[in-house]
Amino acid sequence: MTNQDRPEIITFKAPKSLSEALKGIENRSEFIRQAVLAALDSGCPLCKGTGILTVEQKTHWQELLSDHYLSECGTCKAVHLVCRRADKGDVHEP
């Protein structure tokens, strides 16, 4: 096993309520790994989860909004981008 393949130990502080909630989980390490991977996969590609755009990112965002707008889905209520130039219809329809 090379150093690159060897798992690295990462620790973090957690409030007592989170620690208590994790006590009933059989394999906490695997659960936490999967939760972190899911969170990383769902993060905003622009702000990378910070919730804040840099000045440069905001400039690019404003340019994108010249051809796109935010809309709420009537079916699932998710807010999403819609291109003004290409209406592809409802993603919930087969």
Task: Provide a concise account of the structure shown.
The protein has 94 residues and is of the alpha+beta class. It contains three helices and two strands; from the N terminus they run H-H-H-E-E.
If you had to describe this structure to a student in words, what would you say it looks like?
This protein is of the alpha+beta class and 94 residues long. It has one domain. Helices cover 34% and strands 11% of the residues. The chain is built from three helices and two strands, in the order αααββ. It has a two-stranded antiparallel ribbon with strand order 1-2. The radius of gyration is 20 Å and the shape is elongated. The mean pLDDT is 88.
Strand content is 5-15%
The total of helices stands at 3
SSE class: alpha+beta
Question: If you average the pLDDT, what whole number results?
Answer: 88
Percent helix range? 25-40%
Counting DSSP E segments of at least 2 residues, the number of strands comes to: 2
